[in-house]
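In the design runs reported in the main text, the only information available to the sequence generator was the tokenized backbone. The following block is the verbatim input for one such run; it is reproduced so that readers can re-run the procedure and compare outputs position by position.
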């Protein structure tokens, strides 16, 4: 795998935008210095943008081992993902996606003869498997987990669909956005 073109990244996005992009993909809370390093910006730029992100409720501050660290706000991310689904899809499209993803999970249940994702993952340690079989189970588990996330998001979007579309129609907007 080749290294990303850092210079092109720096030319395309401002330092503040790079900080936002780094925060959005964090799996675990990171320090200002770490975020600044990953975004290739000065510490002060990262600190200032993190304060802005916290004021916008897009980032959260955590204290880990006595250090202040920052992470994306999971509630805000969920809201934005649900609103994006509503704004980009019709009710019929969301229902179709829900049915398709549910069918895929059911297919994995049948194929691996399990009822839950945990049961599928337990097959890795409970059975004597070849490397190829282990990879197949890991891939199936990853797919299942992704499908469950998409199912949850689709259900949330469908639950809120009418409210959000009526609100955006009454405002004359094409969609609803969270500031």
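Verbatim output:
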């Amino acid at each position: 795998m080749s290294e990303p073109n850092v210079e092109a990244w720096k030319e395309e996005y401002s330092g503040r935008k790079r900080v936002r992009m780094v925060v959005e993909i964090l799996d675990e809370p990171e320090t200002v210095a770490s975020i600044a390093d990953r975004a290739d910006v000065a510490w002060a730029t990262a600190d200032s943008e993190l304060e802005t992100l916290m004021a916008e409720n897009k980032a959260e501050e955590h204290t880990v081992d006595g250090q202040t660290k920052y992470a994306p706000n999971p509630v805000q991310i969920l809201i934005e993902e649900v609103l994006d689904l509503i704004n980009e899809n019709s009710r019929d499209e969301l229902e179709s996606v829900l049915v398709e993803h549910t069918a895929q999970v059911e297919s994995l249940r049948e194929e691996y003869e399990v009822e839950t994702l945990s049961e599928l993952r337990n097959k890795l340690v409970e059975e004597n498997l070849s490397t190829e079989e282990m990879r197949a189970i890991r891939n199936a588990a990853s797919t299942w987990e992704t499908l469950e996330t998409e199912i949850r998001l689709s259900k949330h979007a469908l639950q809120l669909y009418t409210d959000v579309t009526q609100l955006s129609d009454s405002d004359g907007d094409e969609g609803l956005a969270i500031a």
